[in-house]
Amino acid sequence: MRITNNTLTGNYLRNLSKNLKNMQKYQDQLSSGKEVSRPSDNPMVVSRVMNLDTRLRENEQFKTNIDDALGWSSTADGALASASGTLLRARDLIIYGANGTLSDTDRSALVDEVKMLQGQLSQLFNTNYDGRYIFGGQETTNPPFTMQDGVMTYGGDQEDLQREIAPKVGITLPSNGSTFTNVQGTAVGNESLGSLLQNVEKALESGDLKALSGDLLGDMDKHIDNVIRFRSKMGAVYNRLESARERNDAENLNMTEILSKSEDIDLAEKMMQYSTMSTVYQASLATGAKILQSSLLDYLR
């Protein structure tokens, strides 16, 4: 095979370009800190990195959902705790009102306090979190409880809220206010908490001691138990959300580590590779200077 000057020059330029391209690759990796920057660098690695990045973004959204639900549940529990205390005070007033020795002035004062307690309950049940009412079901933009003719009335939605906390995993946030303000099996007219308190007011005004110590007291206990059960359900949801957040944090940590191993460079290794390739490139330039310096004029001298 005949080796000409053009052959030497062509081979040299191809090798020089290859060396320069390799050196540029290491420069890009050092400047970006990433193993790959485009699909053509390593399609398999890029595909894995993109998949991990997508999963991390999804997990971040799930974490946002979980944190929002935790805040929602915590706010709801606080409101229900205050409501339980208010109902216990109403129960004490029923027992006190069943005392036959009270004067009309005393009973009038009790009626006023029961009315105040009903308004207080309405305010507690209209608690909102981040601008959304927590006991209105899926209707979160309007106050679910209103006072109509002195009676607390629920006007919210009948469905609880749903939150997605992991891939294909959802959780129900108890938010239907009618669940804890209505009780079946009570005396006629006392199914709703608002109606019960109104009937307590009427019994106090008329001095109906039998109703106060009988149905009204028994139904108040049922309503208190109902609120406590709802609060316990909310507590169970909170505990599950905390566990979900721990799992989410662990998954994020694991995927972040895997992603780092897939796309982040070993700085010391890349510096060494770049230094080696830089030396090779400089040697190529030096070799090229000897190959390209010969010309026809050199032979004619």
From TrEMBL:
Residues 3-140 form the Flagellin N-terminal domain. Signal peptide: none annotated. Residues 220-300 form the Flagellin C-terminal domain. It is found in: Bacterial flagellum. One of its GO terms (biological process) is bacterial-type flagellum-dependent cell motility. Keywords: Bacterial flagellum, Cell projection, Cilium, Flagellum. One of its GO terms (cellular component) is bacterial-type flagellum hook. InterPro entries: Flagell_FlgL, Flagellin, Flagellin_C, Flagellin_N. Belongs to the bacterial flagellin family. This is Flagellar hook-associated protein FlgL. It comes from Proteiniclasticum sediminis.
